[in-house]
């Protein structure tokens, strides 16, 4: 069997534990040695107790827990060559040449860079006498498989990322709660949801929670959005609705690229319509709590497939990402996904909204 290490990186998400569990158990089942790396890339750079052997029982009783039991971090040290050199040494010390990275596109891009640098890092370690030439020759490269853990569902190449479904569950529960109080007081509520530069959570929530209006970054509203919004809210009220729900993605912008914040929307509604309006920012509640059945299964399936993919890799294999595509687990080249994800951002920066939406639409 091979020696594998698994780590979670970047913002956490519900279902990461399920993926970790699955990697550990599938790895052990196939005769591999599996290590945890605590605190993401930081633990890889710092080494020591951060890298520890996992056993079958160390992942019992975690599938139902939100977050990640092995910790996660956004790490600046790993962005520097010195940091990657330390990480390389720490892995080699334990004969780890197979990595499973659970994180967002930044974390996966980092993994790709690490693989590219590996041969040079080996040379440097040999030159400084830290490792022998034999050791370098025995471990000529590192095999990497990624899984996307993020509530944002902002990664091209997979239909769903681990955590999105649970976040949606949190959001619609919160909106249902807001609706009941809004109803009593005939209020309008502007609810801000997460998603960074991606409108997926906002859009799907809008459908699932029967919102009157949704603002997302990929499709900014027409310049006269204030009038359009107010007309729509008035119509809903005229039809007997006692409340309004407006969803604003945290990354929402107008056609000039200026932020459309929940507070701004509230001011528009208050000034133009004089409706009693409140803002609710859901924040990190969306990223917490128990993972849904969907995310638990997604983590299980992706984790198992990640180990199977590693087992088939050679030193020449390029990193891949495990994706869900039409309910099948598939392996997609990591850099292809990262490049497509970056293309969405580029289209948005260029105000090419049609292109942004088109790129987002393809899994
Ligand atoms: O990527 C997940 C996410 O929750 C985004 O939706 C949000 O913009 C960001 O992370 C918040 O980051 P932090 O947890 O560092 O405040």
| Structural shape | elongated
- If helices are DSSP runs of H or I spanning 4 or more residues, what is the number of helices? 12
Task: List the uncertain runs.
Answer: none
Q: How many beta-strand runs?
A: 12
Question: Could you tell me which ligands this complex binds, including any ions or cofactors?
Answer: 6-O-phosphono-beta-D-fructofuranose
Coarse structural class:
alpha/beta
Distance between the termini: 33 Å
Task: Evaluate the radius of gyration.
Answer: 23 Å
Estimate the strand proportion.
Answer: 15-25%
SSE order: EHEHEHEHHEEHEHEHEHEHEEHH
Please give the share of residues in helix.
40-55%
Biggest β-sheet strands, sense, barrel:
8 strands, mixed
Mean pLDDT: 96
Subcellular location: Cytoplasm
Binding site for Mg(2+): 105
Region (N-terminal catalytic PFK domain 1): 1-363
Subunit structure: Homotetramer.
Topology summary:
Elements: E1 3-8, H1 16-29, E2 33-37, H2 40-46, E3 51-53, H3 81-93, E4 98-103, H4 105-127, H5 133-138, E5 143-150, E6 162-163, H6 164-185, E7 188-193, H7 200-208, E8 213-215, H8 225-238, E9 244-249, H9 262-273, E10 277-281, H10 293-312, E11 320-325, E12 328-333, H11 334-349, H12 353-361
Parallel strand pairs: 1-2, 1-4, 4-5, 5-6, 5-11, 7-9, 7-10, 8-9
Antiparallel strand pairs: 2-3, 11-12
Helix pairs in contact: 1-10, 2-3, 3-4, 4-11, 6-7, 8-9, 11-12
The structure holds 6-O-phosphono-beta-D-fructofuranose (F6P).
The site of 6-O-phosphono-beta-D-fructofuranose has 10 residues, from loops.
């Amino acid at each position: 069997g091979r020696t594998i290490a698994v780590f979670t990186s970047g913002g956490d998400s519900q279902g990461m534990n399920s993926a970790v569990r699955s990697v550990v158990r599938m790895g052990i089942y196939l005769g591999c040695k599996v290590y945890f790396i605590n605190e993401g890339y930081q633990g890889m750079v710092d080494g020591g107790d951060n890298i520890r052997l996992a056993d079958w029982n160390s992942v019992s009783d975690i599938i139902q827990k939100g977050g990640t039991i092995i910790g996660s971090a956004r790490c600046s040290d790993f962005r520097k060559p010195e940091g990657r050199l330390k990480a390389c040494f720490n892995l080699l010390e334990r004969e780890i040449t197979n990595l499973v990275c659970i994180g967002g596109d930044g974390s996966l891009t980092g993994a790709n860079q690490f693989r590219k640098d590996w041969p040079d890092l080996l040379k440097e370690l040999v030159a400084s006498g830290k490792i022998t030439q034999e050791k370098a020759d025995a471990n000529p490269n590192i095999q990497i498989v990624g899984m996307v853990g993020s509530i944002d569902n902002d990664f091209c190449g997979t239909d769903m990322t681990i955590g999105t479904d649970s976040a949606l569950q949190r959001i619609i529960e919160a909106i249902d709660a807001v609706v009941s109080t809004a109803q009593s007081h005939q209020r309008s509520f502007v609810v801000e949801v997460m998603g960074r530069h991606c409108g997926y959570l906002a859009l799907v929530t809008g459908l699932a929670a029967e919102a009157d209006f949704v603002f997302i970054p990929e499709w900014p509203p027409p310049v006269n959005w204030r009038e359009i919004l107010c007309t729509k809210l008035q119509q809903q009220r005229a039809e007997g609705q006692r409340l309004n729900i407006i969803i604003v993605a945290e990354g929402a912008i107008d056609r000039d690229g200026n932020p459309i914040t929940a507070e701004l929307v509230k001011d528009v509604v208050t000034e133009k319509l004089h409706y009693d309006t409140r803002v609710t920012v859901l924040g990190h509640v969306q990223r917490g709590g128990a993972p849904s059945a969907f995310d638990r299964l997604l983590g299980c399936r992706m984790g198992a497939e990640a180990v199977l993919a590693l087992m088939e890799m050679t030193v020449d294999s390029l990193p891949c990402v495990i994706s869900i595509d039409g309910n099948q687990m598939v392996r997609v080249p990591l850099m292809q996904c990262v490049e497509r994800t970056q293309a969405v951002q580029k289209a948005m920066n260029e105000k090419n909204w049609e292109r942004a939406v088109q790129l987002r639409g393809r899994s």
